[in-house]
Amino acid sequence: MQLNLKNPLIFFDLETTGTDVVRDRIIELSFLKVLPNGNEEAKSMRIKPMHEVNGQQVVMHVPEEASAVHGISDDDLADKPSFRELAKTLYRDFEGCDLAGYNSNRFDIPMLAEEFLRADIDVDFMKRRWIDVQTIFYKKEPRTLVAAYQFYCNKELLDAHSAMADTKATYEVLKAQLDRYDDLRNEVSFLSDFSSFNNNVDIAGRLVWDRERQHPVVNFGKYKGQQLREVLLKDQGYYGWIMGADFPLDTKRTFTRFYMLYKKG
Question: What pTM value is reported for the model?
Answer without folding.
Answer: 0.76
